[in-house]
Amino acid sequence: MEKVEVKDRISLLLHPRNTVIVTCCTVDGKPNAITLSWFMPLSFKPPMVAIAVSPRRYSHKLIADVGEFVVNVPSMNLFRQMWICGTKSGRSTDKIKECGFTLEKSIRVRPPSIRECIANLECRVVKTIETGDHTTFIGEVVAARVVKGLFDGVFDTKKVKHILHVGYDVFTTTSDEVLRATT
Ligand SMILES: Cc1cc2nc3c(=O)[nH]c(=O)nc-3n(C[C@H](O)[C@H](O)[C@H](O)COP(=O)(O)O)c2cc1C
Fold this sequence. Notes:
By secondary structure, this protein is mainly β. It is 13% helix and 38% strand. The chain has one domain: Roll (Pnp Oxidase, Chain A). Strands 3-2-6-9-10-5-4 form a 7-stranded antiparallel β-sheet. Strands 1-11-12 form a 3-stranded antiparallel β-sheet, with no helix packed on it. Strand 2 (20-25) and strand 3 form a beta hairpin. The longest helix is centred in the middle third of the chain and has 9 residues, at 58-66. The mean pLDDT is 98. It binds flavin mononucleotide. Flavin mononucleotide (FMN) binds next to strand 3, strand 5, helix 1 and helix 2.
């Protein structure tokens, strides 16, 4: 296999990546939503996740000010909403309204959860790290919910179609094929 060197946007070599919609809010409670594909699980016990948010995003200030966020997991039926939350800014657009999202009170954090998403992970920021042109917010998951019947320790990928970001405006999704690993 002949290889070519990549010099620009090298992180896209690590895509496709699952895509989430993170909710956050101002100190006086006004909500916003931002699409992210740069996030990762960090720990089972305590449950922890990291999100990488550019300081240019309106959501960056909200998460830094409030110290809480919710990772909402969309499936393919929310593709249009995912794109709105990833291309418009809460500085000038009420994305929640434009997406037609139903917000519900989170169990343990101030930012609301998106009812239409299949899972909601409520996070409290425990560490903030400058990582190049993004800020990594490390959150401890203080509560999590999932739609009944879709998750039995793992997602049922026959029922759930995740949104996978390939790069720019290109996306794909998970397939129906289930492979069981054996030794
Ligand atoms: C599929 C997708 C993935 C994205 N992933 C990230 C990300 O991981 N980090 C980030 O800072 N911005 C990411 N963005 C860009 C933000 O979602 C976008 O700039 C958004 O409009 C910012 O909204 P805000 O200004 O209301 O915070 C992504 C956009 C899309 C469409």
